Amino acid sequence: MLKQFPLTATATFAGVLAFSVVATPALSQDSRAIIDKMMDAHKAAGFTTATYEEFTQDGTTVVLGDVNFEVPISFSIAEEKIAFDVTVSAPEMVLVKPAETDISFTFEEISIPEFTAAVDYNLPVDEDIKAPYPVSATTRMVNYTGFNVSYPKTSQFENATGTGPFADLAKLIHFGIKGSADRETLVQLDTRTKMSNGSEQITSQSGIDMLDRRDGRIARYEAAEQTGRDTFAAQEGKEGSSFEYSVGRVSMRDLNVMPLLAFMGIAESSEEPVEVSSSYSAKDIKGKATTPGEETTFSIGLVSMGRLTYAPGNLAEILDSIKEVETAEDKNGKSAPDMFGEIIANLGTYHLTNFQLQDLAVDNDEVKMRLSSFDIEEVAPEGFSTAAFSGLELGSGREDSSVAVDQFTITDVHYPNVLEGLAFAGENMDKPVQRMLEYMPEIGSITVNGITVLEDGDQMGSLEGMSLSLANYINSIPTQIALRTDTLKLNPEEMDANLRALLTGDEVTVNQNLDLQWDESTNTLSISDLRVEMSEGFNALVTLKFSGVTRNLIENPDNAEEALLSVMFDHALVRVEDAPLARKFLQKMAEEQQMDEEALADMMVGQMMTSIQPIAGTDFGKELKDKLTLFLLNPEKLEIEMAPQQPVPFTQLMAGAMMAPQTLPTVLGATIRN
C-alpha cells in the first residue's frame, strides 16, 4: 500500500516541535532542580536528549547556554515503517520569572535569539516508484519570544494512550498540546528541504504572531509574509524546472488540531462536528513556474475561508479496510462497495461555510486568464449550496481570441452516493438507465450572464443571459424544468452556407423559453411554453400535454415500455408566425432553380406530402398542403393543433402509426390554420 511517505512539509512540524522543546519554563528558588525535572519531563514524553551546558541567573532572569533536544519519531502505516529524527539546538535561551505549579512549569517570558531544528528522514523506498522523497530538512528560527508560557509536568501526559499507527506517539503529542502561551512571536523562520533526486525546497516566513495557544488550539495565527522556491532537478535527460511564490499576510482564527488528532487516534473523538478554524485568509499571492522554454506566472489578490468543522473519522479503521481490499483477507462476505463504504465512512465528515478567491491572473505564452472572483458556500461531502464566479476572461497568448463570462452561478448541488451507485451497478447489470442515474448529481439552478466570444478580434457570438431551473427531483430526475435564453447573438459567418445565405444582418439574435412540469396529483406531463424567436424573422411555439405519466415511469426508467402502457396523448400545438426567413428561403431556391415562386412552393410542399402518405390523401392532408403552401408565400402564421375529444393511449397511437396512419388526424383531432 504505502511505498513512500510525502513528509515534505517539515517546516511546520519542526517549527512547532522546536517551540515545545526550547520554550522550557523552569526555575524558581531551586532553579537547577526544576530544570532537571523539566528535562526529565521531556524524556518522559519521548525525547532521548534534553540538556543544557551553561546556567547563569541574575535575579528572576535565567540564561541557559548550549541547549539541545533530540527526539526520534517513528510509526508504521500498512506495515511500512516511517522514521525520522528531530534535533533542536539553541545557543542561548533567556527565561524570566520561572515558576512551578502542581501541573506545569511556567514563566512570564522566554526569548531565544536564534535556534535551529534539523530533521533526518529514514523512509521506506520502493525502487519501482520514481517519485522523490525527502531526505533531510533544516529550519532556522530567529528572535522567538513567548509570554506567559507553560509546559506540562509528566503527570499531565504520562497516561496518554492512542490507537492506530500513531499510538506510540501519544505521550509526545500530548506533551505538546498540554502546553500553553498567551502570545508567541517569531521574526523569521527559514526551512530548507532536500529531496532524494537532488531537488530542493526553500521556504521563509516572517512576522509570525500567535495568541492564546492552549489545549491544541490557537486563537489567532498571523504571518506577515511567506516566500518559497522549489527547484526540481534534471532527470533522465530532461532539463530542470523551478517554482517560486510569495504570500502576503496570512491570518487564521480559532485553529484547532484536536479533530485531526482524534482522526489519528490520539485524542478523544466526537460524533458531532468540531470547529477546526473559524476563518482563514491569505493576501497578495504571487508565483512563477519555470520549465524549459516556458514560464507561467500567476497572482491571487485574496484567498479566504469561513468556518470549517470536522467530525473525525478513524484512520486505523481505514487502514484495516485498505488492507482487506488489497489482500482480500477475511472479507466476511463483504462486497467491494461495502469495503469502500467503510473507508469513506471512516474519513469523517466536514462542513465549510464559504470559500472565496479574488483577482486571479494566469499568464504564459499560450494562455491568459483573469478571474475577478470565485465563491462557494455551505460545502460538505453531500454537495454545496452555491458556487459562483465573475469576471472570467480566457484568451490565447498568441492570438487575439478570447472567451469572457461576466457571471456564472450554480445552486443547490447534491452529489450522488457513489457507493450506493457501485452497489446498485454490481447487482443490476440489466438496468443501464438506472445505473447511469445513480451517478447523476441534483442541481437546483444554473445561471450565466454576459458571455462574449472573440476570434481574431471579431465577435463570433454573445449571450446576454441564460437560466436553467431544476426542481422536484425523483430518482435523480427533475420533474420541473425551466430554461430561458435571453439574447443569444451569433455571427452568420460561422453558420452553414445555406442558412447564412438567408440572413442579412451582421448578427442573428435568438431568444428561447422552455417550461416542463410533471404534476403527480394528475399524472400529467406538460411542456407549456417551448418558444424560439430569431431576430431575422422566425417565431415558433410548441406546447404538449400527456396524461397517465405515473411515478413508476420516473422511478423505474428501465421498465419504460411497461409504464408507457398507461400514458395518453392529451394535446399539442405548433405555431410558427412572423417568419420571413421562410420566404427568404423560397426566394433563394426559386432563384437557383430559375422557377416561379408559387410553382416552387407547390412543388416543395408536394414532395413533402409524398413522404407522409397515406395521410396526404386525408382531408387534413389536403388542408395541410394548401395551408403550408400559403405560409411559404406569405409567412405570417401557421398553426397545427391536435386536440382529441378524449385522451388517446400512447399504445393506440403507435399501433395506428404502423397499421393505419391515415386515421391519425381524426383520432388526434388535428387541425391546421393560417
Overview of this protein structure:
This protein is an alpha+beta fold. Among the domains are: 164 residues; 165 residues, no CATH class. 23% of the residues lie in helices and 49% in strands. The chain contains 16 helices and 30 strands. It has a six-stranded antiparallel β-barrel with strand order 8-9-12-14-11-10. Strand 17 and strand 18 form a beta hairpin. Helix 6 packs antiparallel against helix 7.
Number of strands: 30
In DSSP terms, counting alpha (H) and pi (I) runs of 4 or more, how many helices? 16
Structural class comes to: alpha+beta
The backbone outline, from C-alpha atoms, is: elongated
Major sheet: order of its strands? Answer: 8-9-12-14-11-10
Main sheet makeup: 6 strands, antiparallel, barrel
Beta percentage is over 45%
Overall mean pLDDT score?
A: 87
Report Rg: 36 Å
Helix content: 10-25%
Instruction: Measure the end-to-end span.
Output: 74 Å
Low-confidence stretches: 1-29
